[in-house]
TrEMBL record:
Gene: rbfA
Domain of life: Bacteria
Keyword Transit peptide on entry: no
Name the record gives this protein: Ribosome-binding factor A
Chief subcellular location: cytoplasm
Organism: Algoriphagus halophilus
SUPFAM superfamilies in the record: Ribosome-binding factor A, RbfA
Amino acid sequence: MESKRQQKYAKLIQKELGDIFQKDAKHLVGKAMITITHVLVSPDLGFAKVYLSFLLTDPDATYKLINQHKKEIRHQLAKRIGKSVRIIPEIAFFPDDSASYAQHMDKVISDLNIPEAPEEEDEDSED
């Protein structure tokens, strides 16, 4: 269970990283849309797990590119939140596959062959 402080810190990081990917890191991601779906922060606030979702791009290539430029992204984050926090956390990016999992489950459910239920007869009319 995350403390209130961890949750507040995670929301701040999520908001600022979203702005960084939208505005400052356009040279890295091009026209790709990157969404920060979730951020988990360690209890000492020194480490953050950032889960990313990708649209309009190859997820694997973009994920590798972001990991190569992790230091630059952390520096941009430090410029934005450095005056309001003590520690700029180390960042680890992870691909969020919940959207692809949801699509897979939707396909599995739609492909199910479920027979129609037999109609029930009224038992009340026999009284």
